[in-house]
Design a protein that fits this description.
single chain, two-stranded antiparallel sheet, 13 helices, 7 strands
Length: about 300
Amino acid sequence: MPSVTHEALVELFKNRPRLAAEMLQDALGQPVPAFTEARVESSDLAEVVPSERRADVIVVLLVSEQQRPAMAIVVEVQLGVDPDKPYVWPVYVTQTRARHRCPTRLLVATIDAAMARWSARPIDTGHPGWTLTPLVLGPEGVPVVTDAEQAKAAPEVVVLSAMAHGEGEAGEAIGVAFLAAAAGLDQERRALYADVVLSSLNAAARRTLEAMMKSGYQYQSEFARSYVAKGREEGVREGTLKTKAHDVLAFLEARGLEVPADVQERVLASTDIAELDRWVRRAAVVSDARELLATNGS
């Protein structure tokens, strides 16, 4: 089951189709052609890959006069290491390009700096001259939105800002900016975005925002009711896994040991807390980072 964070990010790009183009151009400095409409298209790529594999969002930028596609953007939300992605991402790009017959970009969105680095690694397809380098929107590329007028003009951007920066010092200011934008949203989006923003803020900022909303806040959206109970549990577990994985790598690096990419990937991909605990202990005594995995039969 996808996490709350994953589904929330997907919803932002679906609800504001222009967001993918805005982030490519404004955050990543990638040229985007002039367009008059951004439209979310079917992300089912079952013609080429199994039906359970589909891109998170596909946005097509159109020129109004002929409704001609000027560019397609494949948006993928990535919150964890997935060894399948370097193989399926090139398929998503080529299939989308063939379907819409226009230049196609791959935009990977994440709110985790380590995942941004992992996602940005060039993908060597094996074909001469064809290396796909994903365009990655990580937390550093997401603007810190604290201006009410900016939030009103682009509510999805302020929600994205809360997800990327809500735990930091700007959390409260981002939350207040969101409240300025919330009044102009329809009830469904307002409820969903409020849930996401509140769950993304640090504790002090969350208390302030809840007080400003004048009542003990209850999760209001159908989205949140579906995901939040499981999301809290998953969030705690994901946070524990991430912390322990980074402890393992930090211990190895502090001892001056080189950590190869495949070892780093394996550690970050672990979903076994007991395994990570063993690796933390082993990181104190191994003489080579690869011994960490070999000792455990990996």
